[in-house]
C-alpha cells in the first residue's frame, strides 16, 4: 500500500543503517507528533518519514522503515501501484481490507488478522476497503535481508482471544516461528491483548530494535505512560514490562 508517490527502494536502502535515537533506551513518539496526511478518503499518520512527511530523525529504526496508521473510508482505497525490495505487513485493526495483485492473489483480511507481501523483484497490488465502514490498520514496511527474490503474498487469521495476556508472533523471518506468516527479513511482528491491571514482559537480545504501538488502550512501558496509538522506539538488550492501564491491544516489531 502506498500514497500517491511510492518511495524509491534505493533511497530506502540508503537509510538502513542510520539510527539517530541513541541517547535514551526508549523514545516516546506521541500520536500528535506523527506525520499527518488527510486525503479525505485516507487519513494517515506516519511514525516514520513517508511520502510528503520528512524527518531525518525518523527515517527508520533498525530494519523497520515505515509504520503507517491508516484510516481508509468506506468503498475507497489504493488503486494498483508497484513495490519492490520491501517486506510489507498489514495489521487490520477494524473493518477489513481487500487485496488483489499482479500475481493473481486475492484476499480479504479482517480486523485482528494480518497479511504480508514480499515485494521482491517487483509486484503491483491494489488495496481497497470494500466495506460500509471505515477500515483502520497499521501498515509496516521492513527492509529485507537481501534485494530481489520472487514476490509473494499471504494472509492468516489470528483471533484476538488467543492472544490474551501474552504476545504472539504473527509474522516472522525466523524458522522457529513455525505458526507465523513468513517474511524475508530479520524481524518479527507480535501482537497481544492485555487486560487492565495486567502486565507482560518482553525480552530481546543486544543489537535489536523494537517498535511498539498500543493500537487501543493506555499502557505503561517500564513505568512511562503511553496513550493509544503513541509509538515507542526501544533499544533492545534488556526486558521491558508492559502494563495495561486500560484494556489494551499491543503491536510490536522486533528487528535487527
Automatic annotation (TrEMBL):
Residues 171-254 form the Quercetin 2,3-dioxygenase C-terminal cupin domain. It comes from the Bacteria. Residues 35-142 form the Pirin N-terminal domain. SUPFAM superfamilies: RmlC-like cupins. Pfam families: Pirin, Pirin_C_2. Gene3D superfamilies: Jelly Rolls (2.60.120.10). Signal peptide: none annotated. Transmembrane segments: none annotated. InterPro entries: Pirin, Pirin_N_dom, Quercetinase_C, RmlC-like_jellyroll, RmlC_Cupin_sf. Belongs to the pirin family. This is Pirin.
Amino acid at each position: 500500500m502506498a500514497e500517491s508517490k511510492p518511495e524509491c527502494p534505493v533511497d530506502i536502502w540508503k537509510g538502513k543503517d542510520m539510527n539517530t535515537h541513541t541517547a535514551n533506551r526508549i523514545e516516546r513518539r506521541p500520536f500528535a507528533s506523527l506525520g499527518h496526511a488527510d486525503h479525505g478518503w485516507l487519513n494517515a499518520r506516519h511514525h516514520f518519514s513517508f511520502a510528503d512527511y520528512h524527518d531525518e530523525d525518523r527515517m527508520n529504526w533498525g530494519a523497520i522503515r515505515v509504520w503507517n496508521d491508516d484510516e481508509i473510508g468506506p468503498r475507497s482505497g489504493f488503486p494498483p501501484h508497484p513495490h519492490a525490495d520491501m517486506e510489507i505487513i498489514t495489521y487490520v485493526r477494524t473493518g477489513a481490507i481487500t487485496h488483489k495483485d499482479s500475481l493473481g492473489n486475492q484476499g480479504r483480511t479482517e480486523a485482528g488478522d494480518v497479511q504480508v507481501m514480499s515485494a521482491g523483484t517487483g509486484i503491483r497490488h491494489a488495496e481497497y476497503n470494500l466495506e460500509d465502514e471505515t477500515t483502520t490498520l497499521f501498515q509496516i514496511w521492513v527492509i529485507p535481508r537481501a534485494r530481489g527474490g520472487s514476490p509473494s503474498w499471504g494472509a492468516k487469521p489470528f483471533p484476538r482471544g488467543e492472544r490474551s495476556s501474552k504476545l504472539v508472533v504473527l509474522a516472522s523471518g525466523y524458522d522457529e516461528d513455525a505458526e507465523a506468516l513468513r517474511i524475508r527479513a530479520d524481524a518479527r511482528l507480535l501482537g497481544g491483548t492485555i487486560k487492565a491491571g495486567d502486565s507482560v514482559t518482553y525480552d530481546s537480545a543486544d543489537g535489536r530494535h523494537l517498535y511498539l504501538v498500543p493500537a487501543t488502550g493506555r499502557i505503561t512501558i517500564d513505568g512511562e505512560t503511553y496513550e493509544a496509538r503513541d509509538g515507542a522506539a526501544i533499544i533492545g538488550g534488556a526486558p521491558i514490562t508492559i502494563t495495561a492501564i486500560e484494556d489494551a491491544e499491543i503491536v510490536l516489531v522486533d528487528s535487527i
